Amino acid sequence: MKNIVILISGAGSNMAAIVQAARQEQWAQRLNVRVAAVISNKADATGLAWAQAQGMATAVLNHQGFASREAFDTALMAEIDRFAPDLLVLAGFMRILTPGFVAHYAGRLLNVHPSLLPAFPGLNTHQRAIDAGCQFAGATVHQVTADLDHGPILAQAVVPVLTGDTADTLAARVLTQEHIIYPLAVAEFLRGLP
Ligand code: GAR
């Protein structure tokens, strides 16, 4: 059985979408894979409570307790590797990763980003898209490389930017699409793993 480990920092709605897709589409039987654990860098992440309520294995590693980014990532790797991940899924995990962390999970590390990459890497993607006068926005699932928000693209979804949109209304429209493309892209990626 292959293991997916999912990292979150907040609401965890993408994580929940993947967990629900795994159940509904019977990934265990059809893809020989399960979501083995959900790990958060924030103890109060609401997605963590959801995962616990589902009876899933969860863990918390607060980055604030560490002297450096490297020290945190080293401890996080140890925590993740307890679950022997074949695939590590970033789902609203709001941390910049060290090169050592990315190298450790090379080829088995995915992220969802709330823009049509390569446009708008980084933060505040929705406000930046509105400010730039974009008529379309969207989300991207990509492989993670050392170059922030620039790895090979696996899936994208496009939404219109509507008159009167705020960052929040646009984010909500994009998020509904993330919930569709992320589980699809994860399943597709798993089919391609040895
Ligand atoms: C999602 O919109 C995701 O694309 C974004 O955070 C949100 C998390 O929502 N990720 C990033 O901005 C990564 N840089 P969720 O916790 O409900 O899945």
How does this model look, in words?
This protein is α/β, with parallel strands linked by helices and 194 residues long. It has one domain: Rossmann fold, CATH 3.40.50. Helices cover 40% and strands 22% of the residues. It has helices at 13-24, 27-31, 46-53, 69-81, 99-104, 125-131, 167-192; strands at residues 2-8, 33-40, 58-60, 87-90, 109-113, 136-143, 153-160. The two termini are 12 Å apart. It binds glycinamide ribonucleotide.
Task: Itemize the secondary structure elements and their pairings.
Blueprint: E1 2-8, H1 13-24, H2 27-31, E2 33-40, H3 46-53, E3 58-60, H4 69-81, E4 87-90, H5 99-104, E5 109-113, H6 125-131, E6 136-143, E7 153-160, H7 167-192
Parallel strand pairs: 1-2, 1-4, 2-3, 4-5
Antiparallel strand pairs: 5-6, 6-7
Helix pairs in contact: 1-7, 6-7
The protein binds glycinamide ribonucleotide.
The site of glycinamide ribonucleotide has 14 residues, from helix 1, strand 5 and helix 7.
